[in-house]
Amino acid sequence: MSKFIVRGGNVLAGNVKVSGAKNSVLPIIAASLLGEDGISIIRDAPPLDDVMTINKVLESLGANVTYDREVITVNAQNIASCEAPYEWVRKMRASFLVMGPLLTRTGYTRISLPGGCAIGTRPIDQHLKGFEAMGAEINLGQGFIEAKTKGRLRGAKVYLDVASVGATENIMMAATLAEGTTVIENAAKEPEIVDLANYLNGMGAIVRGAGTGVIRIEGVEKLCGVEHTVIPDRVEAGTFMIAAAMTGGNVFVEGAIADHLGPVISKLEEMGVSIDAQENGIRVRADKPLKAVDVKTLPYPGFPTDMQSQMMALLLVSEGTSVVTETVFENRFMHVDQFRLMNAEIKVEGRGAIVTGGAKLSGAKVCATDLRAGAALIIAGLVADGTTEVSGTHHIDRGYVHLAEKLSGLGADIWRITMDEPVAESTKVQLPQHEERPVLKIQPTWA
Ligand SMILES: CC(=O)N[C@H]1[C@@H](OP(=O)(O)OP(=O)(O)OC[C@H]2O[C@@H](n3ccc(=O)[nH]c3=O)[C@H](O)[C@@H]2O)O[C@H](CO)[C@@H](O)[C@@H]1O
Ligand SMILES: C=C(OP(=O)(O)O)C(=O)O
């Protein structure tokens, strides 16, 4: 078991480099399964536990995956299985993103049901609705979802009831090899959707309109591996921006793309933080007391739910009272109880949290209840009186590369301790040597 130990009181200053985006690289790795020829080379792939998990999913399907110094190669010419095992899908919801590629390429897939998690129930009805509209027969039972088609999937119009990121990605990937045109209406508009569309187009797909609410995909016969560089992680960037503001610091967040961070920048500016967006990053300076603001999470281009807990940490030390409204996930205030252990005053009423600013936070033993909650607690620890110990590090390792090292490079007093216990599987980042496996190429059901 490990913990982050943070001693509050240091002002952050200097330069920090943002890693590749977790939420881009995961669907992109899944999409590599579509490459019947050639090899995909994915650059700026962050060394995160989630990346290792999806790599293992691909390996379990028969793809040959290597990971070396933030470059992943995927050779998916020979798919040996269409079943994503529970062992990996339970670790990470994004494993479910292999369903669209497998179904469209082979006509059959069987995947463990992804569970709910700390932040909400997270149903997958919109993914399935899309596949069904394209002609797939879906069967659910015994913890598995099975999808099959008699011939190729057929292009269809799919209106999403919620602008789901994952459903947009899964349907978009499935549509690339379908017969005819698919139109996704009320599609999610996140930058990660655009990154995935660019990757798919590089593989030979025809995807238009990604980044808008209507995406059109003309199906093609075949896709091939391609080289691609993943976009910088806007949530990691936003986390450092808030950490800088929190400590009254002056930090250059290298690689951060201002266009991807519109609402975070606007809210920080409203609070009195100075933001200077430059070509290769964003400078954040906070040299005066910060004002309270209200924040409401929304699908992109609204304020990201993945930045809600970090923002709440900042509002705790601003002047005045704020209301934080979470509209994307129904249970994403688990960090509130942990903040309270640090002397925070927050009242939760349904989807709203009333945050009393001006708190003198005190160090405490707290637990990361999910990935972003973990980052938010560390940020709070940066200004708390005394020492904060953050456990639940496996959540943080899912989405932040070398968080302690990056923050200490900016002057934070933070380090990680590992207690004398076996290292959990999820904290290991090196992939084992790829085993030779039988070349059992699965043919499409209609071939
Ligand atoms: C790997 C990845 O990219 N994860 C991100 C992705 O998750 P993910 O793709 O899982 O999130 P979605 O956009 O699908 O979820 C948004 C909302 O839609 C609901 N919903 C979703 C699918 C569905 O079939 N039915 C349904 O009702 C969800 O319960 C949730 O309330 O987008 C979220 C919202 O920006 C982010 O917090 C996650 O970091
Ligand atoms: C909720 C998140 O990720 P995931 O969808 O992978 O759980 C996140 O990145 O904050």
UniProtKB/TrEMBL annotation:
Family: Belongs to the EPSP synthase family. MurA subfamily.
Boundaries of every Enolpyruvate transferase domain copy: 7-407
One Gene Ontology molecular-function label: UDP-N-acetylglucosamine 1-carboxyvinyltransferase activity
A Pfam family that the UniProt record links to this protein: EPSP_synthase
Residues annotated as binding phosphoenolpyruvate: K22, N23
Active-site feature positions: C117 (proton donor)
Organism encoding this protein: Paenibacillus anaericanus
Enzyme category, top tier: transferase
Organism phylogeny: Bacteria, Bacillati, Bacillota, Bacilli, Bacillales
Reactions this protein catalyses: phosphoenolpyruvate + UDP-N-acetyl-alpha-D-glucosamine = UDP-N-acetyl-3-O-(1-carboxyvinyl)-alpha-D-glucosamine + phosphate
GO biological process assignments: cell division; cell wall organization; peptidoglycan biosynthetic process; regulation of cell shape; UDP-N-acetylgalactosamine biosynthetic process
Protein name: UDP-N-acetylglucosamine 1-carboxyvinyltransferase
Pathway: Cell wall biogenesis; peptidoglycan biosynthesis
Function: Cell wall formation. Adds enolpyruvyl to UDP-N-acetylglucosamine.
Keywords: Cell cycle, Cell division, Cell shape, Cell wall biogenesis/degradation, Cytoplasm, Peptidoglycan synthesis, Pyruvate, Transferase
A GO cellular component entry from the record: cytoplasm
Locations listed in the record: Cytoplasm
Residues found modified as 2-(S-cysteinyl)pyruvic acid O-phosphothioketal: C117
